[in-house]
Write a structure and sequence with these properties.
The complex is a heterodimer of chains A (899) and B (157).
Chain A: H1 5-55, E1 67-71, E2 74-79, H2 81-131, H3 142-152, H4 154-162, H5 165-184, H6 186-193, H7 196-233, H8 235-240, H9 244-297, H10 302-313, H11 316-342, H12 351-355, E3 366-376, E4 379-390, E5 394-399, H13 405-412, E6 420-425, E7 428-429, H14 435-441, E8 442-445, H15 456-460, H16 477-492, H17 515-528, H18 532-541, H19 550-567, E9 576-578, H20 590-595, E10 597-599, H21 613-621, H22 625-643, H23 651-655, H24 664-677, H25 684-692, H26 699-702, H27 709-724, E11 734-736, H28 748-753, E12 755-757, H29 764-778, H30 782-790, H31 803-816, E13 821-825, H32 833-846, E14 851-855, E15 867-872, E16 875-880, H33 882-887, H34 891-898
Parallel strand pairs in A: 5-14, 5-15, 8-13, 13-14
Antiparallel strand pairs in A: 1-2, 3-4, 3-6, 6-7, 9-12, 10-11, 15-16
Helix pairs in contact in A: 1-2, 1-5, 1-10, 2-4, 3-7, 4-11, 5-6, 5-10, 5-11, 6-9, 7-9, 7-11, 9-10, 17-31, 18-30, 19-29, 21-27, 22-24, 22-25
Chain B: H1 3-11, H2 21-30, E1 32-36, E2 41-43, E3 51-57, E4 60-66, E5 69-76, E6 81-82, H3 84-89, E7 96-99, E8 103-109, H4 110-119, H5 121-148
Antiparallel strand pairs in B: 1-8, 2-7, 3-6, 3-8, 4-5, 4-7
Helix pairs in contact in B: 1-2, 4-5
The chains are: A alpha/beta (899), B alpha+beta (157).
């Protein structure tokens, strides 16, 4: 990157800067003329009127004798006096417009230039992050990098647009105005610039100190954001150790420092302002005094003085802008240096290695390391390691925590650059292989892995999306043009020309052609990583858009019908109460029975039904409101009776009560009011509170005996009325249960089940779950369910998956891309024993004939590998087959014993 | 099956006879009604146990696995308590219980059970009495077994 901001500006915007410059110069003559016109008007047209008035000899008419039209000192033609006034005024207006137009055009032009340069700078900085050597990420935190790329460079964009243009333009204006003033009168000119040296000398000095403080503030704020990021990451530790108080104290200290700096800045900044305005007011003092004197003595025309005053009015803004620009320039220069320094990391990877797209034929032969060394911060972590590994064999690497085995895995995976010796894959020097090649051919999974906040499938396919395969299919010409514009603009700023929305999935490298085969490949990889069933279960809980995938929806309906049939078998009888439009479902709540569908969005949220006006209207028409109120009253009575005596922290509140502990006193108060005045005298808010209760009631579960058959029949009527009268705009807020229609708002399993598990039937869940699996298996639906599971959004860093699932997902990701070499570095250490051995067996089977390098956390698992490397203190100390090494009674034995 | 019916049922069980009505209602509300089909296994010998059951209707066999195969040692009827050993002394289930007919039970979780026992001493006494009766019954059965078996010495552990 360029060392100074001017280097950067000239390298990437030379042409634009020259263009701005030309335009600026071009605009100045117009500006000059616009300054001249007031003088011409006063001197040529008005001046004599004044004289006439002052001499007291005003004639009855106005002197309308023709005058000559003078412009820039040339007498051009004669014109009627009033017309001449009109011409001058019109000309003035025109020049105002022209000057405004120039300003507008230049501003837009340089605004765009600034944005482009900012975009380029951000792109360069970000691409540097991608080139950072991995160990650097231990020294620099996200909290530091983020503000640098986002906020700190922001003002640089504005500055770059102005880098040349502003001094040129404002300087030009200033000089033009000054020339004009000097042309009128030398002494007046001198007077108007008399204080500039003072301003030019003292203000920058003060400003420099403000800038320094500003930089310190930036540093402090950067640290602050780093600190906040740290708090977010260490929330668990903070709470576990009860450190909130200390954290607050520490935060307060940082804020205090920032406050001190800011206060200091304000002090100095406003002093500068004060000084500036005082100095600016001094000059007119000279004008009135000196200029007035010259007019009286006749050395200067009155028009001249007016013009000077007008011109002077224009002096301070450009001067101020110039001073300001000088300050911003100093500031921007330092900021640029600071940011760029943070992104100039020694050991940064070569552009070509990271971004190049040179691919190589499939790696074969053997992996040969000769005197391989890796050093970090002066520690020699791998020492003169020499080894040959045929790329068709399985090698286990064992050793204790300080053996360097983890670093070896990273070096072999080309994630760390070795600091000495050579590493070859077949006939290729590993250090020359670009990431386009290694990313495709080498799979790596470490002990912990990161998932991106996206769907699971996106995460799994992350390893086979190195480059765009096919352009996006634009739906219309307009969209195609928009895309072309987007690419064109990206190219102008040296940004990436790739379209992220294009199809990046490299199916060819997997030897498959269509999406169906891709899903099968993904399932296979998931099965190897012992995660297929997890994704299947996610799929059962997920939803599916029947319009996007009509075939799957149709088959799921088939599954529903098959399950319904099977449920009538004796073994399953009475386990599920199916949805039936004409029957009250005893295992569903009153709210569910009324709605008889799945709410979409918040309108019919089951917990908030009484707040919905339409629901209340239907219930009112059905005459159910009073019944619900009295049921609500009874529920409240029972709950208060049951739970009032329990200690407040009792788990039953959460588990069983309709009323939360916080609300209990409210309901007690409501009950007292009812006892005193009767149910019908209740206030609206209290009525709503009671009304909310019965909606959660389910007869089979709660056994309160409050929902009798007559009530059920009326709810059924209300259900019917609810569906029939549903206004158009609420139509999309509920997806009704319909045995012949796939319910897009319900999960897959709810769609197949189409009913409620009967409460209180032993093992109903497992029996029905088992039956559902059978049905899915019979109808060959498992793949479709898994596909839905793959759409699961994994959350930030994969947080919605368990740590074990995250780890399995990254193993699946590495397996899926079908690498020539798979390197696992204690990748299964965090999994349970049975998963570990399943994955070990599966991966070894899958990689038969391919290279597998497995850094073991438990050396005994190395049994069966073609070869075992034993490391200690960064050196390779033993090698051989598992049996050879164990028999010798060697370090290998010690390691196994220590396991 | 309303809550009130459950409360009445519970009141007829000697174990709960002396508990005040409001607590009994809470018990009925929080305990889960669980029904089993004929032949369903309620608990398996050797499994972890975290709940006890009261039989409300139907019968269940208590089966113990022996070297000679499974032996039915008792049959439980309405109002009988089962599964309490496992939750009282944290051992795996000591026997398998299988529904002989369709079975209605009230399931009481370990937490709820301990809460009740600690709140109502009368319940502890009832449980002790029941356990003592079982020991006495087992001893009687043992005696009978010893007198019937010829030549096989029964040693006490």
């Amino acid at each position: 990157m360029d060392r100074t901001i001017y280097g950067f500006v000239f390298r990437f915007s030379k042409r634009e800067q020259v263009f701005i410059l030309l335009f600026t110069v071009l605009s100045l003559p117009f500006y000059y003329v616009s300054l001249d016109i007031p003088k011409l008007i006063v001197n040529n047209i008005l001046n004599e009127v004044t004289v006439e008035y002052s001499s007291g000899s005003v004639s009855a008419g106005v002197d309308v004798a023709p005058r000559s039209f003078v412009l820039l000192g040339y007498e051009l033609f004669d014109l009627h006096r009033l017309w001449l006034l009109a011409l001058y005024s019109g000309l003035f207006l025109l020049l105002v417009l022209i000057n405004g137009g120039f300003k507008y055009f230049i501003n837009v032009y340089k605004g765009r230039l600034g944005e482009r340069m900012l975009r380029r700078l951000r792109y360069q900085l970000y691409s540097r992050i991608l080139r950072f050597p991995l160990p650097h990420f231990r020294r620099v935190s996200a909290g530091e990098l983020i503000p640098m790329i986002t906020q700190e460079v922001e003002p640089l964009g504005g500055f770059i647009g102005d880098a040349l243009a502003l001094p040129m333009y404002q300087g030009g204006l200033l000089i033009t105005a000054l020339i004009f003033i000097f042309m009128q009168d030398f002494w007046m000119g001198l007077a108007s610039i008399s204080l500039y040296p003072v301003q030019g000398w003292i203000i920058p000095k003060l400003q420099k100190r403000v800038n320094l403080l500003g930089k310190e503030r930036v540093r402090e704020v950067r640290k602050l954001s780093e600190r906040i990021a740290e708090t977010v990451h260490s929330a668990e530790e903070m709470h576990a150790n009860g450190m909130a108080r200390w954290e607050l104290a520490e935060f307060t200290q940082r804020m205090g420092r920032i406050f001190e700096i800011r206060f200091d800045i304000y002090n100095k900044k406003f002093f500068i302002k004060f000084l500036n305005s005082i100095l600016a007011q001094m000059t007119p003092f000279f004008f009135y005094a000196i200029g007035g004197y010259f007019v009286i003595t006749g050395d200067l025309s009155l028009g001249g003085l007016v013009a000077v005053l007008t011109a002077y009015k224009d002096l301070p803004p450009p001067w101020k802008e110039l001073l300001n620009h000088y300050q911003i320039q100093a500031d921007a220069g330092i900021k640029y240096d600071q940011v760029v320094a943070q992104f100039a990391t020694p050991g940064m990877r070569d552009d070509n290695i990271v971004f190049g797209d040179a691919e190589v034929p499939r790696l074969e032969g053997k992996l040969a390391a000769v005197n391989l060394k890796y050093e970090e911060d002066g520690d020699l972590l791998i020492e003169n390691l020499t080894a040959d590994i045929p790329l068709a064999s399985h090698v286990a690497v064992v050793g204790d925590a300080t053996s360097g085995k983890g670093h070896l895995a990273l070096v072999l995976a080309r994630l760390l650059d070795s600091t000495g010796g050579t590493l070859r894959f077949g006939d290729r020097d590993a250090s020359q292989l670009g990431e386009a090649a290694t990313g495709k051919q080498i799979g790596f999974v470490g002990a912990t892995s990161h998932l991106f906040s996206a769907r699971l499938i996106d995460n799994l396919l992350y390893g086979i999306r190195q480059k765009p395969q096919a352009p996006r299919e634009a739906e219309s010409d307009a969209k195609r043009r928009a895309l072309a514009r987007y690419i064109d603009e990206a190219g102008k700023t040296g940004n990436s020309l790739d379209d992220p929305d294009a199809d990046w999935i490299d199916m060819e490298s997997l030897g498959i052609a269509d999406r169906e085969a891709l899903i099968e490949a993904v399932r296979h990889a998931l099965a190897i990583a012992d995660m297929e069933n997890d994704v299947y279960l996610l799929g059962l809980r997920g939803t599916l858009d029947p319009e996007a995938r009509p075939d799957a929806a149709r088959r799921l309906l088939e599954a529903r019908h098959m399950l319904q049939k099977r449920l009538s078998e004796k073994a399953y009888s009475g386990l599920v109460e199916s949805f039936d439009r004409s029957a009250y479902n005893l295992n569903a709540t009153v709210g569910e029975n009324l709605l008889f569908g799945t709410p979409v969005g918040d309108a019919f949220d089951l917990d908030q039904l009484p707040q919905n006006a339409y629901v209340m209207e239907i219930l009112g028409k059905a005459g159910l409101v009073e019944d619900l109120l009295s049921i609500g009253h009874e529920v409240a009575q029972t709950m208060v009776e049951l739970f009032a005596g329990l200690p407040p922290d009792h788990e039953y509140f959460a588990q069983f009560s309709f009323i939360s502990l916080d609300d209990l006193p409210d309901y007690q108060a409501i009950l007292r009011k009812v006892e005193r005045d009767g149910l019908d005298k209740l206030e609206e808010a209290d009525r709503m509170k009671l009304l909310a209760l019965p909606f959660k009631l389910s007869p089979a579960r709660h056994r309160l005996g409050l929902i009798d058959e007559a009530f059920q029949a009326r709810i059924l009527e209300a259900r019917k009325a609810f569906a029939e009268n549903l206004p158009e705009k609420l139509r999309s807020a509920v997806e009704f249960f319909d045995v012949d229609r796939y319910n897009a708002a319900s999960s897959l399993q709810d769609n197949i089940l189409f009913g409620k598990l009967v409460y209180g039937r032993a093992q109903a869940q497992s029996k029905v779950g088992e039956l559902m699996s059978q049905v899915i298996e019979t109808l060959n639906l498992r793949s479709a369910v898994v596909e839905v599971g793959l759409d699961f959004e994994v959350g930030i860093g994969g947080a919605r998956l368990s740590p074990a699932q995250r780890q399995k997902a990254s193993i699946a990701r590495a397996v899926l891309k079908h690498p020539a070499i798979l390197i696992l570095s204690e990748a299964t250490a965090s999994l349970d024993g049975s998963s570990q051995s399943t994955i070990l067996r599966n991966v070894r089977e899958e990689f038969a004939g391919r290279a597998l390098i497995w850094v073991m956390h438990r050396p005994s698992q190395a049994r069966g590998f073609d070869r075992v490397l034993v490391m200690a203190n960064g050196r390779l100390v033993e090698r051989g087959t598992f049996d050879e090494l164990v028999e010798k009674g060697s370090l290998m034995n010690e390691l196994i014993a220590a396991e | 099956m309303s809550l009130q019916q459950d409360v009445d049922l519970l009141r007829n069980i000697p174990l709960f006879a002396k508990i005040e009505p409001s607590k009994l209602k809470l018990l009925a509300f929080t305990a889960q009604r669980l029904s089993f089909g004929e032949g369903d296994v309620i608990c398996e010998q050797g499994d972890e146990g975290d709940s006890a059951y009261i039989i409300i209707d139907g019968e269940a066999d208590v089966i113990v696995a022996t070297d000679a195969g499974p032996v039915t040692v008792a049959t439980l009827k309405k109002n009988d308590f089962l599964g309490e050993t496992a939750i009282l002394c944290d051992v795996p289930r000591t026997a398998t219980v299988q529904a002989r007919t369709d079975l209605e039970t009230l399931m009481i979780s370990k937490d709820l059970f301990f809460q009740l026992v600690s709140q109502f001493p009368s319940m502890s006494i009832e449980i002790m009495r029941e356990l003592a009766r079982r020991v006495e019954r087992t001893t009687a059965q043992l005696r009978e077994a010893v007198s019937h078996s010829s030549g096989h010495a029964v040693t006490r552990r």
